[in-house]
Design goal:
The chain is built from 2 helices and 16 strands. It has 238 residues and is mainly β. The strands form 4 sheets. Strands 9, 11, 12, 13, 14 and 15 form a 6-stranded mixed β-sheet that branches.
């Protein structure tokens, strides 16, 4: 489960740091697994800049340490804290949060179906921007999904990125360059040079193998044993 919200309240501190309790104003049955928040003066014309660290997460609120960073002094102004929370096992990287909505089941899916699955949860299908992101997402799937309890010893996940078989370049869904798969394509058949093989997926195992890594297929291709990796930009709408 994901959710967003804002907290606005007069705030006063004689020092450059203070602690604040932020209310979700939601009915949660338990504390979320992850909270991300940013703080700013409600009056954007003021010169105050703040850093924020989440110290503790509870079912009704979360505790933060707020520090003024534009200068070492206190403040007396209205503060807005915008927050994002997630319940589940999440990976945070590059101002994005990645997660697997289902940690056990797999389905036969194509890329479009996977993207719709994430859209229905207020998120997007994951892109892979660079090698570091690839390794983090690959390991996150390998460590979090219980695919080894199934008949197969691997799991697939579609990506939002597109592959150009002629230039061998990968483009993320936002139009920016993506990870081209250096040394991470499934061998020996990938990347495919087929002109229609433009959508990307990854096959994950819990050990290094030539039978794991990036795959490229036609847009309507369905793969068995699929999980879905959804993503959300932390600063969207904040």
């Amino acid at each position: 489960m994901t959710s967003r919200g804002s907290w606005k309240q007069p705030s006063f501190s004689q020092k450059s740091k203070t602690k604040l309790q932020i209310l979700y104003r939601l009915c949660l049955s338990k504390a979320p697994d992850f909270v991300y928040a940013v703080a700013k003066p409600s009056n954007q014309s003021l010169p105050f800049e703040f850093s924020l660290v989440v110290l503790e997460m509870n079912s009704g609120s979360f505790l933060v340490e707020l520090e003024r960073v534009d200068q070492a002094s206190g403040w007396d102004t209205m503060i807005t804290v915008d927050w994002f929370l997630y319940t589940g096992i999440a990976l945070v990287h590059g101002k994005r949060v990645f997660w697997l909505p289902d940690l056990s089941e797999t389905k036969t899916m194509n890329q479009e179906q996977s993207a719709i699955y994430c859209t229905n949860r207020g998120a997007e299908l994951a892109d892979i921007a660079d090698k570091e992101t690839y390794k983090l997402i690959y390991n996150h799937i390998a460590e979090s999904h219980m695919y080894n309890t199934k008949i197969r010893s691997f799991v697939h996940a579609w990506l939002a990125s597109k592959y150009n078989p002629q230039t061998r370049n990968v483009t993320q869904s936002n139009g920016e360059p993506g990870f081209n798969g250096y040394g991470k394509w499934r061998q020996p058949s990938f990347p495919s040079s087929g002109i229609n093989d433009t959508v990307l997926a990854v096959r994950v195992r819990d050990y290094d193998s030539q039978d794991s890594g990036l795959l490229n297929f036609p847009p309507k291709q369905a793969l068995g044993a699929c999980t879905v990796v959804c993503s959300m930009k932390l600063l969207r709408n904040l």
